[in-house]
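BUG: 3D viewer hangs when loading the predicted structure for this chain

Environment: internal workstation, default settings.
Expected: structure renders.
Actual: progress bar stalls at 90%.

Input used:
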Amino acid sequence: MLGKHGKQLEGVKYNKAKKWAIVTLAGVIWIAPVMSAGGQMWSGTSWQSVAAAASTNTSKLGEEILTSGAKLMKYRYTTTRSGSKVSVLADVIQVDLQNPYLKLDVMTGKGNKLNSKQSTGGMAKENGAVAAVNGDYFNVSGEMSPIGGQVSDGVLVSTPSELKGMYALTVTKDGKPMIDEYSFDGTVKAQDGSTFALRGINKEDYTVETGAGTYSHVNSMYIYTPAWTSTKRPNDPSTTPTEVLVQNGVITQISDKKALNMTVPPDGYILRAHGTAATWVMSHLSVGQTVGADYKLVAKTTGQSVDPNNLDMMIGGHTILVNGGQAASFSRNIASSGIGGVRARTAVGYSQDGRYVYIIAAEKNGNSSGMSLTELQSFMTSIGVWKGMNLDGGGSTTMVTRPLGEQSASLTFNTEYGTEQRQVVNTLGVFSTAPEGKLKGFAVSGSQTLLAGQEGKYSAKGYDTYYNPIATGNIPLTWKSSNNGIVSVSNGTIKGVKPGTATLTATSSGASSSIKVTVLGGNELASLTAGSGLGSLQAGTTVSIPVTATTKSGQSVTVPADSLTWEFIGFKGKVAGDQLTVSSVNDGAQVGYAIGRYDGYSTVIVLSAAASETIWENFENVNYPINFTTNAAGVTGSAAVVSGTGEKASSKVLQLSYDMTGGTGKMYAYAQLNGSTGRDVSAAATSMSMDVMGDKSLNWLRAEFTDAKGKTVYADLAKAIDWNGWKKVNVDLNGLNIAYPAILKRVYVVNVEEGQDERAMTGTVAFDNIAFTMPSKSSEVGLPAGTASLVLGQKSMTVNGTTKTIDATPVLKNGTTYVPIKHVLDAFGGQAKWDSKNQRITVIRGSKLIDLVVGQKEFVLNGKRQSATVAPYVSGGRTLVPLRLVSEQLGLTVKWEQNTKTVTISS
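Structure tokens produced before the viewer hung:
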């Protein structure tokens, strides 16, 4: 097919939507316009944006060069929501359009073809992009093409859809950007001189919003190029096509009222006609004749004609956000579009002089809460955007950038789903066209956080005068540390020594590069887990205890177990590597403890005879009812024990199928065990596991318990079902404070309301081999049971009816009763140890180990940091602990009798 100046049109991308009915940040958008009473399109109000800007602040956290002409800048944007200050992280790629070695372009699916999806990182790797961000909206249930227009590498891939208020960014071949609404104007010309209007190139079928809102392909003609890989153009059963195959400008086939049922050959294109367009085809075109096409884009604001052959690139978006350096009225209805709220977001804009393009992403993850569109407008204007528009966002929001010296781009920040990248139909990429330059420097890479005893792996990779990687392999380096007390350097090995921050510097051939390394302290940890935390108390037993530390910021760090300081109670043993070996068991010991400390922060391995995992339900011989229930009208499904599939083909499994397309709001699909009653979990469990067949729906997977006190407890099996097929899921129950015996009531799927369009409404999951680890069966053996009471002001304690003298009276302070914990442990079993240097008391009873520090309201329970409202304190040389807090964490029940000032403790 020939363009206006005779250029072969090839390569295409597109999006489909029959109704354009559901709009979303991840793909489909509800794009039906909302009209005011006066017939004007609804738009946002500028005064709201101005008011929001008055209470905001933008600060740059840092920047780094990506390649010559492009740099990545990190910002913190602070605003007020519901009266509270909120900080959001945003990442901006600044692209210098005047740099001769830099270009913007649009990448498509796989192999730069339509009708396919790929992650942003995948497209960047396939095409060698220095940086990329997810691009245009698309219909997630359609034919995987962008809704807006697209030009890639100077080729018109897809034309804009006839929808109102949908903006696009173009960059001309001489480096001039423009954001506007664009329409398409084209003509097909037969050999006999007659013409017919060409409505678009490589488009899915949809309902247009211009004119009378007619259906896109009725009485219309479209061109489909080799970039359209589907055999159907489009996959539309409502209009019968007449198709014409054109190769090298000559008609080779005509199929009247019947699809050719073939892919487009690389040397041609297919005309797809319907109704009056089909009549014209049959009247004016014949096999062997020539045919041509003439077309252009039209910028709606200026009326300017744009020759696609003069463009380097074009990418579609959604509403305009910034115009003239100010927040603009939204060109589409945001409130009902499904793209409102606070989300991860992407946008693009340019500076007033047209020199710089800004590719923008607002993060929503564990470190950042995302932005509303109004906040995004405010942020964009604060960094110098003169004109800008919204791109696709939500769970699709992904930015990848190439660090200095690296060969490929990687995630700039975690997405809403962690490190998983959603697959999309196109991305906006940044490319370097520079020749290979000379060595300019090198970048040091490696872990910026270590634990004491942990070795770090560091390398340096060179980059040239254009800041592009040099393929010379790793550079030989000499290392030194600014503080060897924090990290040690020996023969190129870097190892954490003690908490603090050091600067690690590498030198080579007179050049140097540095990286700051922080060795984390115990006060920065949120949890410390050693294997499963369980083992068997038998001489010769070896327990695998790989240690994982989680910081308060959410970072997970692996630390060698033998770098912790270990204490053994009830047995003798040793730790080597990540293995704990029991050498001998103390006489009479029924339970043993291996206590490991990292900078004072503890984790514990409880050793007992019943520490192995026990299958609770394998669904092979189920003799109780299993029911499907839901919370929302319109949600349907089924729950039943069925024969498994795949690796479970010879097993019975619990299968849960759901269809939420008819529901609204936050929706649940439950598999109820034993009707509404549930099944007993008789003994205290520290963990639960099960085999789960995922459906990659990205829905939330949970289990629900009712404990002995009647409290409902929820256990997260997976925050997002991001896998297909079977895998084992493990859940730590220690921190859920379940009172046993408990009941496992149901397992279920949740589709939450926020970002609902990004998760599947239908699917099937399955469960097998639900198992619990219940070490308490032996670790609690021998613990005294009964009742004890203490009276304020009295140096006595009654235990099972017998009065005993104690050396300190209970104290009531600010409504909390404090006692020396020794007296409770004497009555109910357990032991306590005092560390005067660190002002720490360690309490052990049964399967529980608690570390409390004088004056601190936080405490550590079996390796997990917990919060409390009270803290231990020292009085008269004795350490007093909050009685209720400690006793209940140890599995005891505490009651207070106001009239007699009596505390009663029972087990």
